[in-house]
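Below is the record:
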Amino acid sequence: MAEFSLHRDTVMVVDDQPESLRMLTDTLESSGITVLVATSGQGALDLMGHLVPDLVLMDAVMPGMDGFAATARIKANPATRHVPVIFMTGLTESEHVIEGFEVGGVDYVRKPVNVHELLARVRLHLGHARAVQASTIGLDATGRMMLSTDLAGRFLWCSPLAETAIGRLEPGWSSESGQLPDMVRQTVERLLLRRDTPGTSLRIDWRLDDSEYALELVLIAQYRDNEVLIRLNQFDPEGDAARLQARLGLTEREAEVLLWISYGKSNADISDVLEISPRTVQKHLERIYEKLGVETRAAAAAIAIRSAET
């Protein structure tokens, strides 16, 4: 069944106690939040198969499938792993707090619940979830291919364009699998060994139908305790250079130099890739400027990028 589009903030409350459910439902609904109700961990999973809320308030201890097991299942499902889970636990159950974080919870509140504290935490995590979603959409809208993993290299999320790029390397791959293809994962793990040096990059090269392709992974930053942001650059040197040569009236070597400029490479990098001297790279670049009627590296790169997109 297709996921239902929810326009208001929607919170699922999971609790086996009717009095607690009533209090939580009344508190949230009085604040303009739509409430979904489940009385067991399994009931929560069943409901999330049809309606995916913006946040889950999860009782830690329930008969049958408890809140910890249900949350582990939520986080293991690519369709629901992004949903923040706040645990509700008794005042004396401090060990439950640790277990809640271990299975993927983002926060907790103590029972009996203080409604003001509850609403503050719910609004905080709803806002953060919206920001993450907007950032992912925004990255794709600007043409950026971004990938996020934890410090062990386990997949967290990627922008749609990054998903497409990885799918070209590993046909049939989807972010819904919840894990990266082996080749990408191994490269990420090697990259993370250098996470103290932002800008570090590694490439994956492969051949398809007698053409060479490359996917570059660039370490951007560690921006949460256990999350790393990686930019992907997709290279099709032969095809892209041929298109630039035909569309911009360049020589083969000029097209290759301009291509690598558009990939964000320095003259030294281009010298290594094309096995020519940095001085020769600069001479080609000067002729490129003249032919394109531009004066800067950035302007030449912008023309190359627009030519590749048309």
Summary: The chain has a mean pLDDT of 84. Residues 237-309 form a domain with the Arc Repressor Mutant, subunit A fold (CATH 1.10.10.10). Strands lie at 10-14, 34-38, 55-59, 85-90, 107-111, 145-149, 155-158, 201-208, 211-224, 227-235.
